[in-house]
Specification:
The protein is mostly helical and 102 residues long. The chain folds into two domains: 50 residues; 50 residues. Helix content is 79%, strand content 0%. The chain contains six helices and no strands. The radius of gyration is 16 Å and the shape is flat.
């Protein structure tokens, strides 16, 4: 299976999870399907790291891209999670991007 096919599977299962949580009253079946996405993304992240870890310049670019994505996605995640209460609930929950970088 190619990395592209694995990315498509991960995106579709994550989309199913998000649809379940946002639009359906009982989202458990779609949530179970959506749990496939994180191991796929973690594998792809580790595979990408394997290809760049020997070259310092490429590694720095790879990690800085992940940090930039985390910084951009965190306010969006907080807005979706807490709505208008972002100021009072800030740093209560983090997006998965921080975990993937670590």
């Amino acid at each position: 299976m190619s990395g592209f096919i694995l990315r498509i599977i991960a995106m579709l299962t994550m989309l199913a999870d998000h649809i379940g949580w946002n639009f359906i009253d009982n989202p458990m079946m779609l949530t179970w399907i959506g749990r496939i996405a994180f191991p796929c993304y973690a594998f792809l992240l580790a595979e990408g790291f394997f290809f760049v870890f020997k070259d310092k310049r490429r590694l720095l670019r790879y990690v800085s891209t992940l940090v930039l994505l985390a910084v951009i996605s965190e306010p969006c995640y907080d807005l979706l999670e807490f709505g208008s209460n972002i100021g009072t609930k800030f740093m209560e929950a983090q997006s998965v991007m921080i975990t993937l970088i670590l």
